[in-house]
Amino acid sequence: MTDTAQTAHLPQVTEPRNPGMALDLDWVHGAQANRSAIERRAATLPGRRSVKKEYQAAWLLKAISCIDLTTLAGDDTANRVRRLCAKARQPVHVDLLEALGVGGLTVGAVCVYHDMIAPAVDALEGSGIPVAAVSTGFPAGLSPFHLRVAEIGESVKAGAKEIDIVISRRHVLEGDWQALYDEMKTFREACGAAHVKAILATGELGTLRNVARASLVCMMAGADFIKTSTGKEAVNATLPVSLVMIRAIRDYHERTGYRIGYKPAGGISKAKDALTYLALIKEELGDRWLRPDLFRFGASSLLGDIERQLEHHVTGAYSAGYRHAIA
Description:
14 helices; globular; 9% strand; eight-stranded parallel β-sheet; alpha/beta
């Protein structure tokens, strides 16, 4: 296999980066969300889009390449992060990949807290896998503003290539779109060359209309990705919320020409759920978004279930979950 083929699945940046634009309040206030229609559309997807056998295996391999393999626990240690990074470099057992005729597969990124950036960068050296760091007072985003901005700078200095920031939910709930825009713009500037994923914490925004408007404002302020959740809210990624966010992405692309990435996070732990999200992205945004530079799953346990499904495809038998431990 050539070097190009071995690295083609990695999150190569092939799109011009979103520079942002002036805040367009007419566009923001014009964004609406028909909850009943959105929920009907989302409800049809799992049963209507199903893939089997070798096609399912191919889609699951695609899903692996789009995972931000994540550990965000209070008891994280450097050794746990190193084990996670080893799994990121070799996400599926070699025997299974050989049986499937696949080589060089890795996840899209490894996502950690700031203190775990150094061991992650060290463990991933030479792999091409970027380190993503959660920042800005994750998960609540309620620390002093200057400290949130400084935290971004420290994470970039430590080697993080992607920064997952959390917005101030109160700006959305109060309809203060200028404040949200200014905050997001400052965060984007602090990231410099590192790409920024704006976490909306959609489970705390109240309405789907708020989700749509917050998505647009963050993209106008220069977000490279918009992300559903921290994974710490009572409600995290859902199909209705995803539909609202990716249609905002589609609208932004049609108006500006810039493609923004999407990251559902929290609660996606089954292979069948990953397939549903990939089908939604394909139908609503098209094949270009089915690459790691524009789509990621924020997940910790999803990879283990995908590996079990791939083993079943190859051997005809399911293995015990503990055989596919993440870290």
